[in-house]
Amino acid sequence: MKSIQKEAFKEELDIIGQSLSRNDGSRDRAKAKKKFLKKSSIYRLDPYVDDTGILRVGGRLHQTDLTFQEKHPVLLPKGHHVSALVLRYYHEQVHHQGRQITHGALRNAGYWLVGGHGTVASLISSCITCRRLRGSMLEQKMADLPPDRAEIGLPFTNVGFDAFGPWTVQTRSGAADSKRWGLVFTCLTSRAIHIELLETMDASSIMCLKKVLFHTRTCGMIEV
Q1: In the predicted model, is pLDDT for residue 214 greater than 90?
Q2: Considering only CA atoms, which of 59, 50, 109, 60 is closest in space to residue 83?
Q3: Is 224 inside a domain boundary?
Q4: In a domain, 111, yes or no
């Protein structure tokens, strides 16, 4: 932390060190600090250097019951690689929660990231896991119609079929709990349908396709 703060807040550390090294009163030190730090991005955070040389947030929470880390978090520079590593670590600790929870976890750990809201939002937008969990569903463009769907011809020239069921019915012979299936034929051009009854699902019953073709041929609906 000392290393990255010396890189990002070199001028602020020098100014605070000079103001503290003076022998004048606390009011004069505060004036000097305000004068030199007014143009800094951390001026409103009332920064100060602790006994170990770490730049921390000041504030008015000295009399609270919070921990020292929460009252005076360590200042992290915006856009630094180490700051991004720390932020990514606590983002994973909260299992890729949103911006408020991630930022709160970072502050509870005793870190104050300069420009934290925008940095956290940028991290979440670039996180692969978050994009996978929160991203919008992709819409795939439908493919072109096959030639069988676009061919102009008589009804049921090109068909698709599928079986459905079963249903439990009572037959004319009085047998109960008999299963019956349906076989639906759909004209690929006109979307007309024809349903045939299936007594079983074996190949002999599904051969009712021949019956349908014979029926449509005799009715003049299709050329076989």
Answers
A1: no
A2: 109
A3: no
A4: yes
